[in-house]
Design goal:
- Four copies of one chain form a homotetramer.
- With 286 residues, the first copy, chain A, is an alpha/beta fold.
- Chain A has two domains: 2-85, ACT domain (Alpha-Beta Plaits, 2-Layer Sandwich); 90-284, Formyl transferase, N-terminal domain (Rossmann fold).
- The first copy, chain A, has helices spanning 15-25, 63-76, 101-111, 130-135, 150-163, 180-185, 206-213, 248-271, and strands at residues 2-10, 28-38, 47-56, 80-85, 90-96, 117-124, 140-142, 168-172, 190-194, 217-224, 234-241, 275-278, 281-284.
- The first copy, chain A, has a seven-stranded mixed sheet, sandwiched between helices. In chain A, strands 2-3-1-4 form a four-stranded antiparallel sheet, covered by helices on one side. A two-stranded antiparallel sheet of chain A has the order 12-13.
- The model of chain A has no long low-confidence stretch (mean pLDDT 92).
- The A-C interface holds A 99-101, 104-105, 108, 111-112, 114, 131-132, 135, 243, 245, 253, 256-257, 261, 264, 286 and C 99-101, 104-105, 108, 111-112, 114, 131-132, 135, 243, 245, 253, 256-257, 261, 264, 286.
Chain lengths: 286, 286, 286, 286
């Protein structure tokens, strides 16, 4: 049973050694360790980030006992510490609208065991994809929304998420702008896919904007949803070459492949506990 | 001796046949033909673009005689027509500043015969690269510039370009903003490399902007310089993956490779007479 | 209603004009034209390839009447001619085994209208994916195979394909080697996805081979199945960067994404009538 | 002054902690640490690799004193240890032939300070690039070679490398096959660029082979030279999309850009002390 320790603290001498030592003292086998210093090493204000994957191999050790024994180190270096259990897949909800590509892709990956995701529910403002969700034995909740009913609908979505104890919400082209209030319930726990290479083409109809600008690449950006629309910390991005030949419909079709791949990459990074957030930036461990 | 015919006209039935027929009637061998309709085929306002490469193989034919014989077709379809001679490399100037990467790359490609460019002169506001230019027997003109001397300097640059009968100006990270007046002398004949994936990170210090936004890709854009800064028709773009690990200096280094490749790709497309401009968009023939 | 004319003939002067003229004379509107000469233009043995997309807009014209009127041109230039109807999606079968990724992807694209494919049947040597096929109302035929039963099983597959009037067979990781006899029934009508960048890692377990060789890229190749295993004409290929960190299982997982995208790209090119075969090479029109 | 510690040993519990502790005890600041276990963690035969970058910040510490104090840890875990000094650029020779692209690119990167390389000499079997080398004040040694003179020429090359105390030899399209004896003088210290995606198209004329096979991608591979030609440990690889349109000459031109970028990437990894070799595979730290 592997555990993941995610920590950050002011950059200081000796922190790597102290952490490694604490893990070794607990009889654990370090499988993977990665660290990163934001800012210049040794300078004021620089921040140390680390992700350690380790196996608790000694009898009688547990995540709880480890965290207890790690406390002195955490306090000494003023650390923020999170411990995650790799054997426990994250309870997840997918929100979608009419477009199927991201939803189908995530369902396929989940069903084939590729994503460590405990998929609890699919929520949509349209009823289109009930069949595939239910076919895969995933509860499907249809919650239509209009300008007038938005507050009620969001309350119903929140209730559904709570009912299923969801810890990650994946917006697989949900196409609705979530209220700040909604987002505040799941800080850095909502992943959205924006259909452009942010910060280019913020806002509506990015493929139309891209076509009008005559760009030679289209892109997609997966990011955590924050109150500032399209300003959330970016987890993954990619682009694909396009030519003058492609009209808006063709750019949109080409873009679907990029969106699908980028969203899956971001979701996987999150589920692997490889993403840390610092301000409006992410550290994505390898 | 291959000729390139670049034409555009309102989209009409029969235009492909009429053009092919006119070329065949002149005893020419069509080597390559590519066409594109902007807008819906057959609808009002749609525009037809074509690039034909052909060899005049019959005795006594010439570019001049061909153009003469092509006139009736051009008039019938209300065509804009340009005829280029593949055997004549385009007289070109490179403008650079202190950064060497794009300059060196273009010089290497030119010297190894890879680019059909008649390199006449290198112009710079710094004297740094005189040695390499002169080493390759290319005249180097040092024209320093300051806020106060900008009008005089631009006049001197224009005089140098005129003296060398330059038809293409490549801004290989020249780093100075050209005046509208300057640009008006070389419409769609100045290629600039912008160190971001436009329209993201318009303006100064795009790598710093990219770092602050926490993007996972950096990019570069080669475009024709127009009065609207960074709004010129895009010829080529590309991106490269980056991670949180890269600071501004590293992003800048990584970006240099992308800039170099993208600028070379755009310059080559222009020199091959493969670029047509429509509004603020390009058609880049394959 | 658009038609696609695919032709090839010995390269000769006047062929472009003659074809365009014949189409124009039939009152058709040429939407797209692309040509290619294999070998040096004008030299012996060089071959001319062309793909024309056109609309028959005049009353009373049809594919049949067009082919009739095109005959003199075809004979004059010794052309091989095929006419395809863009409005008629190609009757297609998907063959799969246990792995779901390519099957699910093709089903999703087909169901969302992205692929002009008339999906008639899914055939598999395992019963695993009956549910998803039937859920989408596609007949699913389970034909298990062993060394001993291979001839009978292939006969049953052929009978199923015949019964459904299939014109394209997509092997979505079918994992069985088809007999030469089987392949001879569908020349250049069976698309296979090989899980390596051919010709590297021909044969079994390419990801294991790749891992042992320590490559920094993995790839996938979509090709027409021919009697020479893994030697069929290549339609599409792509690669993805990998590092020393990835073990065989991880390479395999990474590879699935490449396989999925490459197979879809090849199938789409075939369905769009954009692929011509010459020897063991393909011309893939843009 | 940063130091790089490269180590490998049988995978054992406690090794990460022991190493970090030893560095901290010496008053050093760990800037970057990366580790990798080849094989399954905790299983027999698995090997632990680590790269640590650290600053010796305490007065009186030095690389020598560090290595001395590190000995007990190294012995306890049966480590292979190398300590490199980031402030000391590696003495390097470039060997080239007639093709300029890789040579010019490396010279440009070196001259602009991008590569931490102490370029001592350029050696070539042709005199073509004497001018650019000497222009940049790098000694150029012309050592022509023929079948008959190969042993003498290799002896002369070895003498030149020895005279300049070279520790890295970069074969920038040198085009000659080095003898096993020559290679034995510089084990894992000769980087070669092969103009294909190895193991595809081993041997001569890979672009011709690629054209004949009709591939849709071309590639390049940078690897350490070993006695088994084209079987050396791979450091970097990349590919570029090509189409049926490109003939052998065009594939070759397209390939040059890939070769240039891939070689530079491999050379930089080596110069940054980011490459470890295990069998015929590499670990390339990030």
């Amino acid at each position: 049973m592997s555990s993941v320790l995610l920590l950050s603290c002011p950059d200081q001498q000796g922190v790597v050694a102290a952490t490694a030592e604490a893990i070794a003292a607990h009889g654990a086998n370090i499988i993977h360790a990665e660290q990163y210093v934001r800012g210049e090493v040794g300078s004021d204000g620089s921040v140390f980030f680390q992700r350690m994957v380790f196996d608790l191999v000694r009898d009688g050790t547990s995540a709880t006992s480890f965290l207890e024994s790690f406390k002195p180190v955490a306090q000494r270096f003023d650390m923020t510490v999170e411990l995650r259990d790799m054997a426990r897949p994250t309870p997840t909800a997918i929100m979608c609208s009419k477009q199927p590509h991201c939803l189908y892709d995530l369902l396929t990956r989940w069903r084939s065991g590729e994503l460590p995701m405990d998929l609890r529910v699919v929520i949509s403002n349209h009823d289109d994809h009930r069949d595939i969700a239910e076919h895969m034995s995933v509860p499907f909740v249809h919650l239509p929304v209009s300008k007038e009913t938005k507050p009620e609908q969001e309350a119903a979505v929140l209730a559904t998420l709570a009912e299923h104890d969801v810890e990650l919400v994946v917006m697989a082209r949900y196409m609705q702008i979530l209220s700040d209030d909604f987002i505040a319930h799941y800080p850095m726990k909502i992943i959205n896919i924006h259909h452009s290479f942010l910060p280019a083409f913020i806002g509506a109809n990015p493929y139309r904007q891209a076509h009008e600008r005559g760009v030679k690449l289209i892109g997609a950006t997966a990011h955590y949803a924050t109150a500032d629309l399209d300003e959330g910390p970016i987890i993954a991005q990619d682009t694909a070459h396009v030519s003058h030949r492609e009209d808006v419909a063709q750019l949109t079709a080409r873009g679907r492949d990029v969106e699908t791949v980028v969203l899956a990459r971001a979701v996987r990074a999150h589920l692997d506990h490889r993403v840390a957030v610092h301000g409006h930036q992410t550290i994505v461990y390898s």
